[in-house]
Write a structure and sequence with these properties.
The chain is of the alpha+beta class. The protein has one domain. Strands 1-2 form a two-stranded antiparallel ribbon. A two-stranded antiparallel ribbon has the order 3-4. Strand 3 and strand 4 form a beta hairpin. The chain starts with a helix and ends with a helix. The structure holds zinc ion. The site of zinc ion has 8 residues, from loops.
């Protein structure tokens, strides 16, 4: 009977762990998920370093794209000094 109790305990722990996993899993919006599954998200090329990043993670200014905030700041700063 002890073995049965142990098995029951394991089963309950497993179920609790599964529920915990389900509740704590990051929620991905449906559209983003289908794009990720297809692997066909539009890519943007950074104006500064030419790194290609998904558009959802890139920063856009007009028709220029940047891979991160740092490059966005640098790019916009150098562009402004070029204009002046
Ligand atoms: Zn960049």
């Amino acid at each position: 009977m002890l073995l049965f109790r142990l098995l029951l305990l394991f089963a309950m722990a497993f179920i609790a762990w599964r529920i915990h996993r389900l509740l704590t899993m990051p929620r991905v919006p449906g559209k983003e998920r289908t794009q990720r599954l297809r692997g066909a998200e539009d890519m943007a090329e950074c104006t500064l370093c030419a790194l290609r990043v998904p558009r959802s993670q890139a920063i856009a200014t007009g028709d220029r794209w940047y891979c991160c905030e740092d490059h966005w700041r640098q790019g916009e700063r150098s562009r402004r000094s070029n204009d002046a």
